[in-house]
Each structure stands twice: as C-alpha cells, then as structure tokens.
Amino acid sequence: MAEETIFSKIIRREIPADILYQDELVTAFRDIQPKAPTHILIIPNHLIPTVNDVKASDEKALGRMMTVAAKLADEAGIAEDGYRLIMNCNKHGGQEVFHIHMHLLGGDFLGPLVS
Ligand code: 5GP
C-alpha cells in the first residue's frame, strides 16, 4: 500500500489549499510555490504514486485531469496565448510529491523546455 502524501490531506480539506476545482475524480489547486503567473496542480483523488503506477482503471481520472486543465486554463484567461502541462516522474523527472499531479503553467512566455 502506497503511503499518502500531503496532497491526500488537501483533497480531504484537512489542510488549507487554494482549491479551484474538485469533483468525484480529481482536485485542482494552486501550487504553493508558483513557477509561473498561473501555476495549478491537477491531481486524481485516489493515490497513484508515480506515472509508472498508472493502470487502465485510472484512465477515467487521468482523462478528467486533462479536461479540467483545459477548463482552468480557459478560466485563467491563458488558453489562447498558451500554457504548458507537465508531469514529473521519479528522481530524474524531478518528482517531489509521490501522488501524481499535472502542473498547469502559464501566464507568461515560458521559453523552450530544453535549451
Ligand atoms: P513535483 O516536483 O513533485 O512535480 O511538484 C510538486 C509540487 O507541489 C511543487 O511545485 C510544490 O511547490 C508543490 N507543493 C508541495 N507541497 C505543497 C503543498 O502543501 N501545497 C501546495 N499547494 N503545493 C505544494
């Protein structure tokens, strides 16, 4: 059984977070240390530690994460200019919280991902 992270407490509203969206599958909230003018994390409500642990039964929640990303980008007014969606996996990907999350970053020109 994978160990819960701070994100499970955010989902259950046991610790404060600026939650922008929540339904039966996913939760979205502002990153506590934003790396762009808009920096939102979108996560499944059930614990999946890394992208390596994703199963076919997770596809509904993963699809919802994408739908919610597009909706929140639109609501933030960054859809037309554009934005970046990132999921980090394990050490080389720079993953720090082991509850998968999609970063929605935008509100400025982000530059090339790799230069
Ligand atoms: P990772 O490096 O795992 O892809 O990204 C984890 C992200 O979670 C980081 O951008 C970090 O700022 C954010 N984060 C970590 N702890 C908290 C927290 O307690 N609340 C919020 N809102 N964001 C957090």
From TrEMBL:
Q: Name one Pfam family in it.
A: HIT
Motif Histidine triad motif: chain residues: 99-103
GO molecular function ontology, one term from the record: catalytic activity
List each copy of the HIT domain by range: 6-115
Which sequence ranges form a coiled-coil region, renumbered to this chain?
Answer: none
Under SUPFAM superfamilies, the record lists: HIT-like
Q: Which residues form the active site?
A: H101 (tele-amp-histidine intermediate)
Q: Which InterPro entries match?
A: Histidine_triad_CS, Histidine_triad_HIT, HIT-like, HIT-like_sf
PANTHER family hit by this protein = HISTIDINE TRIAD HIT PROTEIN
What this protein is called in its record is: Histidine triad (HIT) protein
